[in-house]
Specification:
By secondary structure, the protein is mainly alpha-helical. Helices cover about 70% and strands about 0% of the residues.
Length: about 180
């Protein structure tokens, strides 16, 4: 199977899971912004746990080669702020906006157009960013395991325990 077909199938599966997890619903998006409904956070925590375990397992058995991106604080802070602003204004994050369109909610097209416009602006300004934002507090290619000096499985188990604890807490509080 070629990479494009695999990407399409993965995207369809992801969209299906987003829809079944109810994270495409506008009320869930607003609830997350108001910290009154943690459905989206629980969905993300579940995905992070599965992703951490899956990626490191595949790396450890030699099926894939894990390559970290550099930890650049300037880019993370500015990118995170823009992501959060877009999510708060539109009521969708990138994945949920595409999923909402897939459900027939065409107003989400504005979020997608915003993403495309933002990507075009970033591409045009990349030479400037490469000299400024992308060198602010550049910590290099590090992971939590590198920073702590612990085996990556110890870090994964610890994070999974914290995330599962949060999940259980949210469930008990009916969030």
């Amino acid at each position: 199977m070629n990479e494009q077909a695999l990407g399409l199938l993965t995207g369809i599966a992801f969209g299906f899971l987003l829809q079944k997890g109810r994270v495409l619903r506008f009320d869930k998006q607003v609830g997350a912004m108001l910290l009154k409904d943690m459905t989206i956070l629980k969905f993300m925590l579940s995905a992070i746990i599965v992703g951490m375990i899956g990626i490191y397992f595949l790396n450890d058995i030699g099926f894939i080669e894990l390559k970290h991106k550099t930890m650049n604080v300037g880019a993370v802070v500015i990118g995170g702020a823009l992501f959060g602003l877009g999510w708060a204004v539109m009521g969708f994050c990138p994945g949920t906006s595409i999923g909402a369109i897939g459900e027939g909610r065409w107003h989400a097209i504005w979020a997608v157009l915003g993403m495309i416009t933002g990507a075009a602006i970033f591409a045009e300004l990349y030479p400037f960013f490469k000299q400024t934002v992308l060198v602010w507090l550049d910590w290099g290619k590090v992971s939590l395991a590198d920073v702590t000096g612990l085996n990556h499985w110890v870090v994964i188990v610890a994070l999974a325990a914290v995330y599962i604890g949060l999940f259980i807490f949210f469930e008990k509080k009916k969030l």
